[in-house]
Specification:
This protein is α/β, with parallel strands linked by helices. It is built from 5 helices and 4 strands; from the N terminus they run βαβαββααα.
Amino acid sequence: MEPDQMDIRVQVDEQFRDLLDEGHLASLIRRVLTSEGKSGPLEVGLFVTDQETIRDLNREYRHLDEPTDVLSFALNEPAIGKTPFVLPPDAVVRLGEVVISYPQACIQARTRHKPVDLEIALLLVHGVLHLLGYDHERPDDEVRMRAREKAILETSTP
């Protein structure tokens, strides 16, 4: 991997593959990372899946037995009570994985009266910002995170 290269891996469940542009999703991830001053070598993964899979992940890792829209698994923050990931001893910064539920994004897009592509973009930016340490547990943190989401999305709209 070249020193400034970003390894962005996008995986979309087969049932949604024709509905999404994987190259655009990878480009949006790259835009979030560069807007936050990140450069390679680093890795980020995106997985777009169904309600059942994201519900299973939510139950396993957040102890919430319900579907959700997006989950972020930062590799630099081990979950409480979990063994940290063992990473290879190289110079690659492995930020983690973002998982998005395509059906949940569709539900939310309908509710908000906007295209599903925009909802997916919001969820993706939100998830990557979580990998970079953003959170929204406290009101001031939420304001900061939402402002970054808005700024990034405004610069990525064609």
